[in-house]
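#struct-pred

JT: dropping the chains for the assembly here, can someone run the whole complex?
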Amino acid sequence: MVVGDIATGTDVLVIGAGPGGYVAAIRAAQLDLDVTLVEKETYGGTCLNHGCIPSKAFVTASSIAHDAREGEAMGIHADPAVDMKGMRSWKDDVVDQLTGGVEKLCKANGVNLVEGRAEFADANKVRVAHGGEGQGSESIEFEHAVVSTGSRPVQIPNFEFDGEHVLSSRDALALETLPESLVVVGAGYIGMELGTVFAKLGTDVTVVEMLDGALPGYEDDVARIVRKRAESLGIDFHFGEAAQGWEPAGEGITVRTEDADGEVSEFGAEKVLVAVGRTPVTDTLDLEAAGVETDERGFVPTDDRARTNVEHVYAVGDVAGEPMLAHKAMKEGHVAAEHIAGEPAALDHQSIPAAVFTDPEIGTVGLTEAEAEEEGFEPVVGTMPLRASGRALTLDDTDGFVRLVADGPSGFVLGAQIVAPEASELVAEVGLAIEMGATLEDVAATVHTHPTLSEAVMEAAANAQGHAIHTLNR
Ligand SMILES: Cc1cc2nc3c(=O)[nH]c(=O)nc-3n(C[C@H](O)[C@H](O)[C@H](O)COP(=O)(O)OP(=O)(O)OC[C@H]3O[C@@H](n4cnc5c(N)ncnc54)[C@H](O)[C@@H]3O)c2cc1C
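RK: done, full complex below.
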């Protein structure tokens, strides 16, 4: 039975309940607006269900297995067994707690939740299809809309995701058995994080990358440390090779690659994980019906209030472009909601951090030395190698460094590149320093707990001023 088309109205309609959408919805409701949030799948979006959270749960579990195996030098002798089903069920519990929490928070803040797939009918109306056969649909009229429909993995020719042999990151995070061997196509952050996870769990991992290095976009010395550690975990890298196709071979598959000279190589494995990037979900929304423009890659251009070319339609998160990161989505959701409510809010992209949860982790924020120079600063740089950090030694984890970039004449902190255990946490201090307009002197004069990794941030600031104690000044 079709349950007719019921029309309702709302001040703010949010499409997609990922970190961009649920933050926009909750904040708008806190500001006394009538808010409706439409989600076609599960609350929390990619981040909570198939991205940040499940991948980090796997990063933790795989590191425990790996560290236990590697504890000989500390007098720990262990040979842990990996029970993939158990690991997955623990990860699912973590995910369920968070997605349930998002739903509860939305309800507690008075957000109207609607399950279904939204599509624009015009600039002030969407149609929501409620899932399966006979579930019906409804129309919702809105004063303002926030598009937060996220992104999906990019498919490459000849590698259609089938969840069995050819995996997306989402499939890889749902595996019930540990593959004996895995080819990872793409050495970006998702490929490197998941490649590291599987290598630590005991899978034989080969990474194939079209470019000539891992982690494009990161400085060479940053990427090199992570790649070397990955190699020491047994990951076999093949750079300058493009994946061309695959075919079944016995129980597994053979992946074919080709380099720039046309030389073909073949790699046998149980499965292949394709992690070559993500593309915005803007093609299934009928944005044209609302008059919202997209660029040639499908992203929705926005201003510093997250507004699209249609003034009362906002776009936040992955649909609004790089960096495609959850904290950027949340910030944009916040700004959109506040702007709709008439609050003074704007986006400041200056200090959006980025983290890669490899081993060691990478944390970056603000400008590199080269970028600072390009922007007309006279950069000074201070470095603290982790081998000089007492805490890093007690963690048996000394590959890496903290590098601070500042403006020479004023001393203002401009950026940091950190390769270290917990770099994802350490980088927050530098983000705050940039946001607060702190100088090198401020950071160097702040008393840090001993022994901690965060002391390295203080030492790098002192090093940039020529008075570090625990490392030689340059
Ligand atoms: C493996 C992996 C690891 C990651 N790790 C990190 C990390 O460590 N840190 C980090 O910052 N980022 C990470 N990311 C990126 C992060 O997940 C995204 O940047 C973030 O989820 C974007 O949020 P969003 O709200 O824009 O979209 P999404 O989280 O993608 O949410 C969009 C939501 O919209 C819904 N939707 C889509 N179309 C419709 C429609 N027509 N009607 C109704 N609902 C719709 C979808 O079902 C989805 O729930 C990772 C991503 C992956 C894949």
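JT: nice. The two ends are 77 Å apart (CA to CA). Residues 70 and 76 are 8 Å apart (CA to CA).
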